[in-house]
Amino acid sequence: MYSDLDDLNRKPEPFSRYTTDTLWTDPWIAQKMLEYHLDQGTDLASRRVPIIDGIVDWFDRKIGLSGKAVCDLGCGPGLYATRMAERGAQVTGVDFSAVSLAHARAEATAKNLDIAYRQADYLADDLPGDQDIVTLIYCDYCTLSPQSRQSLVRRINRMLKPGGTFVFDVYTVPQFAARHEAATYGRNPMGDFWSPDDHFGFQTTFLYDEEKLALDRYLIVDLRRRFEIFNWLQYFDPETISAEVAQAGLVVEEALALTTGEPWTPEAGELAILARA
Ligand SMILES: C[S@@+](CC[C@H](N)C(=O)[O-])C[C@H]1O[C@@H](n2cnc3c(N)ncnc32)[C@H](O)[C@@H]1O
Question: pTM here?
Answer without folding.
Answer: 0.96
